[in-house]
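Hi L., both proteins are below.
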Amino acid sequence: MFHIPTALRRPLAVAGAAVVGLAAAVVLGSPASAHHPVVSGTASCVEGKWQVDWTVANSEKDLAGDITGVTFTPTATSDTVKVGAVLPAYTGNDAVLKTTQTLDIATTSATLSVDAHWLRNGKNINATKSATVTVPRGGCKTSKPAVTFTDDCTGDVTVVVSNGAEATKKLRYEILVEGSEKPIASGVVEIGKSSEPIVVPAGEGDNPPKISVVSRGKEIASHTWTEPEGGCVPDIAIEQTCDELSITVTNPPNGLEFDLVFTPNTGAAQTMKVEKGKTSKVTFEASEGLVVTPSVGEEKLEPIAWTQPDGCEDTPTLPKTGANTGAIAGGAGGLLVIGAGLFFIARRRRLRFTA
């Protein structure tokens, strides 16, 4: 039986953005204007970085709405401006949603797009608005170095080291990985410049190692791999009708890409190309005793058994090629096993997705 590694059993926490106060007037349209979210942001410099204080208000003074979509560019998360949040009717600056996005000095702009929904007099109303804010005029200069870490679903971490625009000398650095005796990379960054991206490969075990960036014997940044926003484990859905067994795989936006083969105990196998951010489906003709086994390369996952739903007429019986003891019949627990198994196998095989 396939076992899920310990790391996949633990939910990965996603840190929420800090909420800060913002004293800014929100200019709303006339009562006749269309329902829409009002998105605005103010940029400011912080030591070594810059930030945007975002505000999302409601165009309507008498009707609350719901947030149905949020996109931060570059990617970010928020505990307040998020899908499912209530967009309160606008009664003043206290009746708005606020959040803060922190950005690296190499990033020159940030965009927030918000989708919202209202229900007025039985009619559904949807609208999308966005705003883009640029780095403060003249840029945000600093004498301190900055390091960015970008995680992907393979377990790799991409590191970029930047030297401050007001630094007085070149920045010499080394990248160390916990458990390694020697640096995996080193270099020199000119004043106001950034290094080329450096990929730190995933560790072999379940627990990602700590990555440290050191300059002249002093640690300037550290990081441990975390699951990218949107997750890495594919969602599996199994639909069983009187005539068919259908299996749908939905891969997260940052998920791994790989070929997934479904082999039935009778009939021809089908190959599904699992691509990031996409949903794919295979369908098999139902028959008594049908069992379909998913596999990635030579590694097999839990088999999926078709079970005749109630109310169906008799289904022709096909010769059984083997016992289906332990086969998954589409229960939620079984689907989690398959999804986690797909991710674990694909990651172990070091299958990479294209950017």
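That was the first. Here is the second:
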Amino acid sequence: MGADNDSDFYARIAHLMGTPQQRHFDHSDEALADVVHSAVRHIPGVDYAGITVVSRRGHDVTTPAATHDHPRTLDALQQQHRQGPCFDAALEHQTFFVDDLTVDSRWPLFRRDALARTPVQAISSYQLFTTRDRVGALNLYADRRGALDQPARDLGFIFASHAAIVWTGLHRSEQFNNHLAGREVIGQATGMIMQREGFDAILATAYLRLIADNRNITLVDAAHTVLDGQYGRNR
């Protein structure tokens, strides 16, 4: 690839990296699906892609985004056997490359079942993010052994970095929206208490906190019990 072609190629990648933030997605899964489908379209040799999310203790493995059933099957096998490149990439904060799954001996149980149930021969797994209770990885798969060469691996790092940014941004947005929704519910419940009990705003808020303390629930959950008519002074 010449210098001009290199410039054009990386300009297209840079444009692609900016695209998901400029679109509107109703759910984080849609944005992550956009990333994995883009990876398959733009990284040579990649046949399938998926994102694996693993609980900190490794008990739960989910696939919030995948281009095909094969990534979901492979994640299910890794949960079953508690081993595999995607599983380890997420939990061990590393990147794992499998050039030829037929001869790779690192995850014997996973390898046996993966070869029996999917056509996948090569895998690249990149650790994406860590939170208090979950970790994630971007996984690229190829049906042909050796298909994920060094240029494909380098592009994989770019897409993994982008997926991590998308994940972080979307979940911060979701947390903010959940916070706003919670405040709205609390405000509605406080208003209902003021109207029903004849309290002012301060007493109504204190009353709502008392409900939460008595039931050992959050203030938002207490507000929902009030709005649902499940709690009152005479109950």
